[in-house]
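Q: Structure tokens for this one, please.
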Amino acid sequence: MKMPKGKTLSLRLAEVDDAEFIYRLRVDPSYNQHLSVVDGTSDDQREWLRKYKERESRGEEYYFIIFRTSDQFPLGTIRIYDFVGGRKSFGIGSWIVADQKSRFSALESVLLAYDFGFSELGFEACHLDVRKDNEKVVSFHRKSGALLCREDDVNVYFTMTREIFDNFSNRFRPLLTPVVA
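A: Here is the predicted structure, written as tokens:
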């Protein structure tokens, strides 16, 4: 399986040894206000990762560490999961990009995740549920061309098809093209 690599960022599969890093991100109030609540300790995160690695080995989900390619510095996480209908649709979540990011790190990381889901895994669409109060991410998905499916009191639901992704990503193709030294 080919790991996603962009212009300045790459994704690698999360390992059990990433538990402390992931836990710190998940409990940091500056990053977690729009994510599901994390209870427990970094040891609980380690155990969750052990179980996740089993799901990963069965091809049921993929949890990535986002890192700067130049120095391998970890910047965040993003997850591809909630596979529906075989290869019909996948979800993206657990998307956190830390303060040490560049101007385009969030954009580059989500483009890499979408590309992995569509190109590497062969999905037809991506379904997204975004908390309404996460205005930046709601705005991002609207600007990307993702289709608004519905809203409820808490979330806005979008669908990103392969065709919409291709149109959107073509505007940012340089971010998906690794720098060759």
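A few notes: The chain is about 35% helix and 30% strand. The two ends are 23 Å apart (CA to CA).
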